[in-house]
Specification:
20 strands, about 15% strand, globular, 8-stranded parallel β-sheet, single chain, 5-stranded antiparallel β-sheet
């Protein structure tokens, strides 16, 4: 077995071999004791990120913002909110990352702005302002009383509950917002809007930023006829996503963005499109190298398998369901496009609580999830704390929550009076975005070493034994397992380039697959259950002497393939030359 040190010497030049680490700044590290993480907190933890071995740091929004949606409502795209620091802090972060061979990817939120952005304040000043058409303004439905339910121009439902239209008394029209009323949607049909966005992007790239994660970038093109949708039972509103998800000019806008922002730059600019409801054929178009739109997409199929009519309508998901979804994207994008690999991020609960076992097998199941994810083809994303096996926190009352999406959903349900609120709270505790936003657990001290003040959201009480101080440099820890997975991706081109073949697709507990390269092959297998499992793999006899390159149990004794035997939540990677 080769479980000795795998150290990164030089960062890989091929962007497809990079690993991205997402920092949600308000929950990462607080340097000034105000209870909110900030840029100087990130700067203080760069040695940690360098030791982990990641190539890119994705920074969730730190721009000026009223913080209606924790910074995803931007009031100034070219300044830093004082909550997080200053432009000088951001410049220092770029310089320090570059000195360590890492890169910075900024969150780009340009489907919408804050309603406090000067563009919108000008737009809503009057119907005659030159910037009126920078946003979506429409008259009420003919014959309806403005400002009353059903009078909206369309019956689309907001992703944050309620209608997607808000009545503006001053100018006598509604404005569109797919999310919060404080997040009005930009009108990308207006070429001035597009040029303003491109100018912002160039400004950040000239400052040293290395790429953009583009928030809901498949919603920037709407069906301009604004048709109604099918309402939900008992509601005047329904999901209108089919009218603004991958709209008619989406590809055109991204092609133009590439030409005007990225073409001609000496270094590769990493571009990632967050795209709810995107299909595999659409993702191929968005990421095909010869089309020059995006490097990769964030798709949502695998993280919506356990949701019904809404995110708190929980459905059972079997391992074959999850394998089938992931494998379909492997096959669909193979040789044509590129995918982002993730189980958790700032919009998801903790992956070990959702897909693993956060009880007795927290450590081994966290390793199993990481092993499976990082050995698929695509770019792996490590969400802060996942490398420690952080789990969902005990959120039990509505007062424990901070997320606008959860709070609005609960308030609306309480007002209707047709929902079991106790059951809703249980579902929220499993699926709320706040579960991924509790502070990073640095040590066992008060507030987990995150802040000397009162954290903006409570720290998970399990930080006394789940924390970075207890894991960094500790053989067998979740952190060190992640570190070795990242090093393996850097060292072995099969991880990036090898073809994917799913094995035992219907097995209820074993997730196994092959990665086939020109000179070598990898076999990856994990047990997604709390019971020992065994199975005969459909492999040739040449696998009998394969080398174990990484195992969740460093003391695992070699066993001859193709007979597979795995302990509870155990994961193993084998390699053979061909």
């Amino acid at each position: 077995m080769s479980n000795g040190p795998l150290l990164r010497v030089d960062p890989p030049a091929d962007w497809r071999r990079w690993v991205v680490y997402q920092v949600y700044p308000r929950s990462f590290a607080d340097s000034d004791a105000d209870g909110v993480g900030d840029l100087r907190g990130v700067l203080g933890r760069l040695d940690y990120l360098e030791r982990l071995g990641v190539d890119v740091v994705w920074l969730s929004p730190v721009y000026r913002s009223p913080m209606d949606d924790n910074g995803y409502d931007i009031s100034d795209y070219t300044d830093i909110d004082p909550l997080f620091g200053t432009l000088a802090d951001l410049d220092e972060l770029i310089a320090q990352l570059h000195a360590r061979g890492m890169r910075l990817m900024m969150d780009l939120v340009v489907n919408h702005t804050s309603d406090e952005h000067p563009w919108f304040t000008q737009s809503r000043a009057s119907r005659d302002t030159p910037q009126r058409d920078w946003y979506w303004w429409r008259d009420p439905r003919p014959g309806a009383t403005p400002g009353t339910p059903g009078a909206e121009p369309t019956n689309w439902e907001s992703h944050f509950s309620g209608p997607t239209w808000t009545w503006d008394e001053r100018t006598g029209q509604y404005y569109l917002h797919i999310f919060s009323a404080k997040q009005p949607d930009l009108n990308w049909e207006n070429p001035e809007v597009r040029q303003a966005v491109y100018a912002i992007m160039r400004w950040w790239l000239d400052r040293g930023v290395d790429g953009f994660r583009m928030d809901v970038i498949n919603m920037i093109s709407k069906d301009t006829s604004l048709p109604d949708t099918e309402p939900r039972p008992g509601s005047p509103y329904g999901p209108g996503d089919q009218h603004f998800s991958v709209g008619p000019r989406n590809h055109e806008f991204l092609l133009q963005m590439h030409r005007e922002v990225f073409d001609g730059r000496p270094d590769h600019v990493l571009t990632v499109g967050e795209m709810p409801l995107v299909t595999i054929p659409q993702a191929v178009q968005f990421t095909a190298p010869d089309r020059h739109e995006l490097d990769m997409v964030f798709q949502f199929e695998h993280v919506r398998l356990d949701q019904g009519a809404h995110k708190y309508d929980l459905l059972p998901v079997t391992l074959p369901d999850l394998k089938r979804s992931m494998a379909a994207w492997q096959a669909g994008l193979a040789g044509q496009g590129w995918n982002s690999l993730y189980f958790g991020n700032h919009d998801q609960p903790r992956s070990v609580s959702r897909f693993g076992d956060d009880g007795a097998y927290r450590v081994t199941s966290a390793k199993a999830l990481a092993t499976i994810l990082h050995l698929h083809q695509g770019t792996p994303y490590v969400y802060q704390g996942d490398e420690l096996g952080m789990a969902n926190a005990p959120l039990t009352a509505i007062g424990d929550y901070r997320d606008i999406q959860a709070l609005r959903f609960y308030a609306e349900a309480a007002e209707r009076g047709d929902v079991d609120l106790a059951a809703l709270l249980l579902a929220m505790a499993r699926m709320s975005r706040d579960q991924g936003r509790t502070p990073v657990q640095w040590d066992a001290s008060a507030n987990a070493g995150f802040s000397a003040g009162t954290p903006w959201i409570a720290v998970n009480p399990d930080h006394v034994h789940v924390n970075a101080a207890a894991q960094v440099g500790q053989p067998g820890s979740v952190f060190e397992h992640y570190r070795r997975l990242i090093a393996l991706r850097h060292a072995d081109p099969v991880v990036t380039d090898g073809a994917f073949e799913l094995l035992l697709p219907e097995h209820p507990a074993i997730w196994a697959f092959l990665r086939r390269g020109r000179d070598a092959e990898l076999l990856v297998a994990a047990n997604f259950s709390a019971d020992p499992v065994s199975a005969a793999l459909p492999l040739d006899t040449g696998w009998a002497d394969a080398e174990i390159v990484l195992a969740s149990d460093p003391d695992r004794s070699p066993r001859h393939l193709p007979e597979l035997a795995l302990a509870p939540w155990e994961s193993v990677i084998w390699r053979r030359a061909v």
